[in-house]
Amino acid sequence: MSILSQLKNKIFRSLGGRRWTKYFIARIITSFIPLNHDKYFCISMAGNNYGCNVLALSEYIKKHNKKAKITWAFSPTLFQKHSGGGVVTCGFRYYYHLLSSKYVISNQRLSESLYPFKPKNQVYIQTWHGTALKKIEADAVISESYTKLAQADSRKIDIFISNCRFMTEIFKKSFWYEGEVFETGTPRNDIFFNNYPYITKKVYDSLGIEQSKKIIFYAPTFRKDYGLNYYNINYKRFVKAVKEKFSGDWVFVIRLHPNLLSENTIKIIEKMFPDCVDASLYPDVQELLYTSDILLTDYSSVMFDFMYSQKPCFLYTPDRKEYDRGYYWDIDELPFPAFCDNADINSTVINFSDDIYQEKLNRFLCSIGSKEYGDACRKVYQLLQTYKVQNCIG
After folding, report:
1. Residue 287 CB neighbour total at 10 angstroms
2. Under 8 Å between Cβ of 42 and 73
3. Could you point out which of 5, 15, 255, 346 has its C-alpha 20 to 30 Å from the C-alpha of 377?
4. DSSP reduced 3-state for 121
5. For the chain, which residues score pLDDT lower than 70?
6. How far apart are CA 57 and CA 76, in angstroms?
7. Residues paired with 188 in a beta bridge
8. One-character DSSP codes across 335-382
């Protein structure tokens, strides 16, 4: 090993390793640079996703602020797949852009390595990622290490947005967050209140589906063991029942949860659903929800997004007891028809009443105090422009 390499390694070790060396160098450089007030740093699901509220908000900002400079952070795996640029998490460029941006936008907790220091007057907005069915944060059984991470993250947050009174109460009670929660609606759900024919065409073309066909979108969540045993829906029977009830020509589209994505699981899904369309690699689930005519899921929060389309949503929950880690609602209290066994497909679908469904949806939306009106992006952007930082914790 050369003398230079030995010196580098000695410096890296003294600073805590290569990652922290990059961070300290970036911090020293940015300490001489004022925050760029037109610069936005975006990270979704800790860099493992390019979508959700962060994407919807960043697209709105890009459209309405021609000066905006938007930097996306991706995990190494997603960075390789994403062709639109960005930075790799925890590299020098990551820390440089993080520490020089006026605004940091995230939809999940940011660990110490992802957000080690908050510069003075920087605005950190937490959008979270949907209405919760399963208990989360302090309401759930979580580790001491996660609690410390969450508490540290909450101390940095300036703006916490919510889509309903129900989630606002959870954020205030269980997120170790003492600031104000702004009920703006969630940016990713604006899509359901507007007409975007180009998105419909984009989805159909990308998935190779004829536009004369209607879409049943199956979007189950993942299990703790990351297994696929409970993805055992009899999809042929479900499609047949849907055709009988709603008429038309239907196609069954499935999308694996991002936590399950691998070459092996995609091959398994292709065998389990041989006549179906696999949309697991389609980047934006909101576009799939927007385009679909029926949603079939289990415990995923996508049900609470899709309900704003007012289209039918069904829940297939074969492992309801085993999966339960604590719900905020009993499954049967939700407005969506649910069944636990393939034998119940016909009766569930055929007995579906749109009038009763709409009535249940309206009651549910009223009970949670929904604030979704299709203008969340505008409200959040205006909030960012007028917000004065009160929390300057580094």
Report:
1. 19
2. yes
3. 255
4. coil
5. 1-17, 83, 389-394
6. 23
7. none
8. SS-EESSGGGHHHHHHT--HHHHHHHHHHHHHHHTB--SS-HHHHHHH
